[in-house]
Amino acid sequence: MQTYLKGRDLIGDLDFTKEEVETILDVAFDLKRKRALGEEHAYLRDKVLAMLFFFSSTRTRGSFEAGMAQLGGHAAFIESRTTQISHGDTETEMGEIFGRYFDGIAIRHVDWGIGNRYLNLVAEASRVPVLNMQCEYYHPHQCLADLMTIMEKKGRDLRGRKIVVSWAYASSYLKPISVPQSLILQMPRFGLDVTLAHPKEFELMPEIMEQAREQAEKHKTSFEVVDDMQDAVEGADVVYAKSWGPLLTTRDQDEGKKIQDQYKDWIADQKLMSLAKDDAIYMHPLPADRDIEVTSEVLDGPQSVVFDEAENRLHAQKAVMALTM
Ligand code: CP
Q1: Neighbour count for residue 33 (Cβ, 10 Å)
Q2: Does ligand 1 have an atom closer than 6 angstroms to the CB of 250?
Q3: I need a labelling partner for 44 at 20 to 30 A (CA). Which of 58, 229, 235, 268 fits?
């Protein structure tokens, strides 16, 4: 068991080894138990996390903020637009200065070609850990909560289980590709066979696909890509159907919307769920386009684990913070 994670950044899903992720999960399950029993777990007393947001959030903000308080510390909510970043504070300055005030810096920045670079530049200049609250490429804390949830529902040994990561139609906005990318990178390491399904315009980044294939090969799991949602879901244990933008095809919002609108029948409904195993679970990181991306029948139905999944953000992130800060 790898236990010394002090000072480490978590920006990409593969930044931590599988053994280190197992440590995070062990601690997350323990913290969940402690919270349920009302046992004190103030491992970060007097420590302060900066939470710098360049994009809106419900769950990520709530869970990091509550998590820091439960660990005996404090989280400072900082919206980029209320800072001097637009007036010239550079990434290096933010890393240097916030690194001197805070004990950790968590950042959400999903702008294409900018967010991940921003996090890495802040991390280079910072003396404290930088935690990725979602960039355009990765959503690692969501993925840890997802893994924790799957283990709770299907057991800790996931070898031979099938997860389908499927694109679904949404009308609200072109959602980042970070969730499916994190899933295909992390899930093979824990024994899950991964099927990725999407229309042709919704490809993920070639370098991430290559890394996902490498992980599947290394951990002797399967990784397949299909262009049909129904075919993909056949025999699945986990159906993770959500929307993402055609960002490798176009980053023009209007053109992307036109492409997206061709695939309105890619919806997670009860008919789709009936193709999966009887005890299959439905997952979504939320927010969802209700009755567009997924039907209310599925989202609110017995196979949906979305609230447990959202809760586990709290426990997984507390584990990362307690271990790294
Ligand atoms: N799943 C997730 O990251 O939710 P928020 O965008 O509300 O933080």
Answers
A1: 12
A2: no
A3: 58
Domain count, the chain: 2
Q: Is the CB of 59 under 6 A from ligand 1?
A: yes
pTM of this structure: 0.98
- C-alpha–C-alpha distance, residues 261 and 18, integer Å: 38
H or E segment at 132?
Answer: strand 130-135
Task: Report whether residue 182 contacts ligand 1, using a CB cutoff of 6 Å.
Answer: no
> Which pair of tokens denotes residue 96?
């240097």
> What confidence score (pLDDT) does residue 235 get?
97
CA-to-CA dists, residue 195 to 21, 111, 166, angstroms: 22, 27, 8
Structural domain boundaries enclosing 155: 141-310
> Does residue 6 belong to any structural domain of this protein?
no
Q: How far is the CA of 286 from the centre of ligand 1 (A)?
A: 6
Q: Are 72 and 125 part of one and the same domain?
A: yes
Q: How far is the CA of 308 from the centre of ligand 1 (A)?
A: 14
For residues 110 and 103, give the distance between their C-alpha atoms in angstroms, rounded to a whole number. 23
Cα 105 from Cα 132, distance rounded (Å)? 9
Pocket probe mutation, ligand 1, options 55, 58, 293, max atoms within 8 Å of Cβ? 58
Percent helix, strand and coil across the chain, each to the nearest 5: 45, 15, 40
pLDDT at 176: 97
255 and 135 in a common domain: no
Q: How far is the CA of 276 from the centre of ligand 1 (A)?
A: 26
pLDDT digits (tens, 9 = 90+) for 285-315: 999 999 999 999 999 999 999 999 999 999 9
CA of 59 to the centre of ligand 1 (A): 5
